[in-house]
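Query structure, 285 tokens:
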């Protein structure tokens, strides 16, 4: 049941107050954060197939396509899928909501930290300090050697992947490992992925834990945006942080906005919610 306009305005006011009173901002972001930038919504098989018709023809669900086995069995298809996503994320401009969150964090003595399941790197592109971002599922902007030759994870900034969008197959040459010359893969945690190199994300986790330890005496507000229930990593993390810090949880989610007791539920889009909260904050207090 959707809230009335008056009820929603009350919740937005409560959210603005929670941001205003905070000393530090903890930001959790799922796939819904990118929808307002124009990125496709993969919710459900139909949404995924609408974004990728060639995969619909193969009858593969997202979980089946996002499987590292394709890099061994059909590398042109694997790199077609991930190369297309890499190109799309590079071409897409992060929406204004990123800048709003950054502004709020920069105004606080304790700053902001981002915990995201998104692999697009848009928080860093929007100006967030890369030392204060944890990408729990890795990053499409970084590669690793498929054959584990000992090469460390590397930045994919200068790598180009040419993809035929009608077939979603990548053209040669496919991205190689700079050490052994064999096939590279994105440094993303896929489904059933025992070969993912977690070193970069583990380093981010150490910084994440340090940031939290240094803010145990501060007033932390947790803002979660577009994190669904299908893979509840971000939702669980945000709920845990809110409990551990005795902070207020603001959950922004069009479909799944329910919160534990004491949380603020905003069943609207991420950009819309952030803009409306920002308008309230800009009014004379």
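Result returned for the query:
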């Amino acid at each position: 049941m959707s809230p009335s306009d008056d009820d929603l305005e009350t919740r937005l006011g409560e959210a603005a107050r929670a941001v205003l009173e905070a000393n530090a901002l903890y930001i959790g972001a799922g796939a819904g954060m990118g929808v307002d930038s124009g990125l496709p919504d993969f919710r459900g098989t139909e949404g995924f197939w609408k974004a990728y018709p060639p995969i619909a023809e193969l009858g593969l669900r997202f979980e089946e396509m996002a499987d590292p086995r394709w890099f061994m069995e059909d590398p042109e298809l694997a790199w077609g899928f991930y190369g297309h996503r890499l190109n799309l994320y590079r071409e897409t401009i992060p929406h204004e909501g990123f800048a709003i969150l950054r502004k709020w964090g920069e105004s606080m003595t304790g700053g902001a930290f981002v915990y995201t399941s998104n692999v697009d790197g848009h928080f860093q592109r929007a100006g967030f300090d890369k030392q204060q971002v944890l990408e729990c599922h890795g990053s499409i902007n970084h590669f690793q050697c498929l054959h584990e030759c000992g090469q460390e994870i590397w930045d994919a900034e200068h790598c180009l992947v040419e993809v035929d969008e009608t077939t979603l197959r990548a053209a040669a040459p496919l991205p190689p490992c700079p050490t052994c010359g064999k096939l590279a893969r994105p440094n993303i945690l896929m489904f059933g992925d025992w070969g993912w190199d977690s070193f970069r994300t583990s380093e981010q986790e150490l910084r994440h834990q340090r940031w939290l330890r240094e803010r145990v005496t501060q007033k932390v507000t947790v803002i979660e945006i577009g994190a669904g229930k299908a893979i509840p990593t971000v939702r669980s993390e945000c709920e845990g942080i809110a409990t551990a810090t005795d902070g207020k949880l603001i959950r922004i989610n069009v479909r799944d906005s329910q919160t534990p007791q004491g949380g603020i539920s905003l069943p609207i889009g991420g950009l819309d919610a952030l803009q409306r909260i920002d308008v309230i904050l800009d009014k004379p207090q």
